[in-house]
Write a structure and sequence with these properties.
The protein is an alpha/beta fold. The chain contains 13 helices and 13 strands. It folds into 2 domains: 235 residues, Type I PLP-dependent aspartate aminotransferase-like (Major domain) (Aspartate Aminotransferase, domain 2); 122 residues, Aspartate Aminotransferase, domain 1. The strands form 3 sheets. Strands 1-9-8-5-4-2-3 form a 7-stranded mixed beta sheet, with helices on both faces. A 3-stranded antiparallel beta sheet has the order 7-6-11, with no helix packed on it.
């Protein structure tokens, strides 16, 4: 029986092992551990890749969001609209910036529903945080138009969407700032925590750089209460290696998604993500392959019995379901979705035979 883990972490290292070892050795021999050339090189590469004027390496995606919010002027007394269908870090960044997260429901694509944004706006709303989940960008035309009409700032949580595009615009580029995560399982993942903020605004970039380094400005003097939130230089060196192959890895993810779609599109009990190139407005990078499935829990158990790992994202709980955080508003679309959603293995260590084995197992489950 073929064993197919949901994510093969050792494979991350083995894929480019010699280059990773050399990058680590080179940084170590130079004593280059904090904010050295490797970080500057990575920031330049990321800025060029996204088309942003500035890229600022951060300790993780959550800190990138927090620093982005603060640098954009969000703070005490403000409200920021964010979808409930996201990792709690999105809302936590808003909270720790001193603002209040106000939750919106999701649409059929599992992304923030623009109509829900319009329902929850108040006179305290200062910004919108769209979350570009699973490697797909939300329908940003309507969100940008709404934000413009109401003089709201957009700070994107693009932690799962580096390189994804909507109508030709990259994730992270629709507002004043966008954040990315380089957690190991991300499409561009390092060997620990890592993140970055991108922006075209010089003032936002300067303040974000200050915040990530204990509030120290260019003069070295402390100018604000800041954080220790620098992207480690060795992690930047690792990311520099991986960035060389990033387009190739995204292409492979899209191939895997296409194979899943071809094999599973006729299974009536499933709702699949859009196939690659099925919608000219979207270029999806497939950070995750998130399906909706009838009898989801039984399907998950059946796949596990056959050695196939799957994940229910965030344990099946979205932000509004964490009563300890004080949320009370119902999110009917999100709640229906979380009863059915399931992540299938999606990464470059999954070969075509593995995809076929997974699809065969799913088809057998629903036949019987």
């Amino acid at each position: 029986m073929m064993k197919i883990p949901f994510f093969d972490y050792p494979a991350l290292f083995k894929l480019y092992e010699a280059e990773f070892v050399e990058a680590f050795r080179d940084a170590g021999r130079r004593g280059a551990f904090i904010m050295q050339k490797d970080l500057a090189d990575f920031e330049a590469t990321l800025a060029k890749y996204t088309g942003a004027r500035h890229a600022i390496g951060m300790a993780d995606g959550t800190m990138a969001l927090l620093c982005g919010l603060r640098a954009a002027g969000v703070g005490a007394g403000d409200e920021v609209i964010v979808p409930s269908h996201t990792f709690v870090a999105s809302a936590a960044a808003i909270h720790h910036a001193g603002a209040t997260p106000v939750l919106a429901d999701c649409g059929r694509d599992h992304l923030i529903d623009p109509a829900s944004i319009e329902r929850v706006i108040s006179n305290r709303t200062r910004a919108i945080m769209p979350v570009q989940l699973n490697g797909r960008v939300a329908e940003m035309d309507r969100i940008v138009a709404f934000a413009t009409a109401h003089k709201l700032r957009i700070i994107e949580d693009s932690c799962q969407a580096l390189g994804a595009r909507y109508k030709g615009t990259q994730a992270g580029r629709f507002g004043i700032a966008g954040a990315f995560s380089f957690y190991p399982s991300k499409t561009l993942g390092c060997f620990g925590d890592g993140g970055a903020l991108i922006t075209d605004d010089d003032d936002v970039a300067d303040y974000a750089r200050l915040l990530r380094d204990h509030g120290r400005g260019k003069s070295g003097k402390v100018e604000a209460w800041g954080y220790n939130s620098r992207l480690d230089n060795i992690q930047a060196a690792i990311l520099n290696v991986k960035f060389r192959y990033y387009d190739r890895e995204v292409a492979r993810r899209r191939e895997i998604a296409g194979r899943y779609h071809a094999r599973l599109k006729e299974v009536a009990q499933l709702l699949l993500p859009p196939a690659p190139d099925s919608d000219s407005d979207h270029f999806d990078i497939y950070q995750n392959y998130e399906i909706e499935a009838e009898r989801r829990d039984a399907l998950k158990a059946a796949l596990q019995e056959q050695g196939i790992g799957t994940i229910i994202q965030w344990g099946g709980h979205t932000v509004h379901q964490f009563a300890a955080l004080g949320f009370t508003d119902p999110m009917p679309a999100t709640e229906r979705m979380t009863e059915r959603y399931l992540l299938l293995p999606m990464n470059v260590s999954v070969d075509n035979d593995a995809v076929d084995t997974i699809c065969d197992a799913i088809r057998r489950f629903y036949r019987h």
